[in-house]
Amino acid sequence: MAVFMQSLLSGILIGGVYALIGIGLTLIFGVMRVINFAHGDILMVGMYLTYIAFTWLGIDPFVSVLVTFPLMFLFGGFLQKVFINRVLKAVAQNQILLTIGLGLIMSNTVMLIFTSDYKLISTSYSSSTLKVGGGVSLSTPLLVSFLITATITAALYWFLLKTDTGQAIRATAQDREAATLMGINVKRMSIIAFGLGSALAGTAGALIAPTYYIFPQVGSVFTLKAFVITVLGGMGSVVGAMLGGILIGVTESLSAVYISSGWKDVVVFVLFLLVLLFKPSGLMGKSRT
Amino acid sequence: MLRIEKLNFAYDDLKVLWDVDLEVNEGEIVTVVGANGAGKTTTLKNISRLEKPGSGTITFEGRDLGRMQPHQVVEMGLVQVPEGRRIFPEMTVMENLRMGSYVKATRPDRQKNLDRVFGLFPRLREREKQLGGTMSGGEQQMLAIARGLMANPRLLVLDEPSLGLSPLFVKNIFDIINGINRQGVTILLVEQNVYQSLRISHRAYVMETGRVVLTGTGDELLANDHVKKAFLGM
């Protein structure tokens, strides 16, 4: 039982970070209907920012979120303004090619600067654990990152539900033309949405940096994961992305313990296919008719 | 107040507007009638800058709209309620109304405008927390008009407000439009319900295949032989 609780809780903790990645992708898709294939690479940039802050400036990875979030927001806003806004009316293939291209530029630029060597951030607490009773102990960095994730998600939720700008972003996602007729500057909303999506991905990168290898191609793993999470939850649904993230985290963690860690991805994809088989629009998605 | 001169517009190779001239004066209800595909909605899209004209000028209160972004047109008090209502389906009635007063200059008046639209449409107050997408067609149309009013419009543009409504409700909508006009809002109305809309209009234009073919007061057009034959089945 303790083993079960242990892996369940760890799964939820890592799932929180996955949720952050998924929410970013789903936000971008919801507002722009653009599938961001550079999402994992944006996360990778966040990881390297954290690495720089840690090794050059000695800033703790978790504290560096305060810098990473706004920097990645600006970076994402820049990408939207300069590149993505130009292809909003283009066919989907062109949008996909553009985001893949942007991702390649990011990973190759980082490779030029940092080489493709694996980097590690080792903090005093990287492998420390916290006993929570009943024979269950949780990894301290995972616990801290989950708390940060939960705070950011709650703040984002409040922003989207209660503020005029947040509501305008949702309105733009639901009906772009009608939003325009309300006097909403939809191009600006797109910039904010891509900025937020990138900030969330970058923050997720910062949060996993202390427990993960950092290398220029790490993004592809997370792009794939982000898709599984958002499609599982339902494209465009923030709540769905949260559920999807937690579900994937728990599935990975349980299958690593009860089957083998080499098989965890298989279990995740089987689960993914099953959900799509029985509910093609995803857990929280609406079927498009 | 609104003046359109020699407006020409094409969707790629398909030309849909030829030299359209149209004018709306302060305080009027002006109606544009015409069959499907006559270019009515395209004209409105050009006014709101959702489409950019091929040639011709559109001015609102003396200012050329030619260089403006769509949201800037709304900021000037030219507000369009689009065809098909276009409610935000996953937002509540209240959130939809709040989006109506998204423009910064109108936010201080939000409470006042809410009271005003709830006065016009008491049903909306009852449905405050309901999701827009789950309401009936008539209720959605009320919400769409109310949402437009939240933006403090000086000119309210209504595209087919009676489309798809029950006959009983159609009469209701025209009374409401008349009432809004009496509160001092100028109205540009596009309608296929020719009889009802001409009845409440000060002036009207008849469009056919992208051209304005006839113009006059509402009563004049109601008495016009061509209008009678083409639209009123008389």
Description of the molecule:
The complex is a heterodimer of chains A (289) and B (234). Chain A is mostly helical and 289 residues long. Chain A is 71% helix and 3% strand. Chain A has 11 helices and 2 strands. Chain A has a two-stranded antiparallel ribbon with strand order 1-2. In chain A, helix 1 runs antiparallel to helix 8 and helix 1 runs antiparallel to helix 10. Chain A is globular and about 60 Å long. The N and C termini of chain A lie far apart (45 Å). The mean pLDDT of chain A is 93. Chain B has 234 residues and is an alpha/beta fold. Chain B folds into 2 domains: 153 residues, P-loop containing nucleotide triphosphate hydrolases (Rossmann fold), CATH 3.40.50.300; 64 residues, no CATH class. In chain B, the strands form 2 sheets. In chain B, strands 6-7-8-3-9-10 form a 6-stranded mixed beta sheet, sandwiched between helices. Chain B has a 4-stranded antiparallel beta sheet with strand order 2-1-4-5, with helices on one face. The radius of gyration of chain B is 17 Å and the shape is globular. At the A-B interface, helix 6 and helix 7 of A face helix 2, strand 6 and helix 3 of B.
Number of DSSP-assigned strands of chain A:
2
Rg estimate of chain B, integer Å: 17 Å
**What percent of residues of chain A adopt helix (DSSP H or I)?**
over 70%
Strand arrangement, largest sheet of chain A?
1-2
The oligomeric state of the chains shown is: heterodimer
Shape of chain B: globular
Low-confidence stretches of chain B: none
Supply the number of structural domains of chain B. 2
- What Rg of chain A, in angstroms, do the CA atoms define? 19 Å
N/C terminus separation of chain B: 34 Å
Write the H/E string of chain B, N to C: EEEHEEHEHHHHEHEHEEHH
Helix-strand topology string of chain A: HHHHEEHHHHHHH
The CATH architecture category of the largest domain in chain B equals 3-Layer(aba) Sandwich
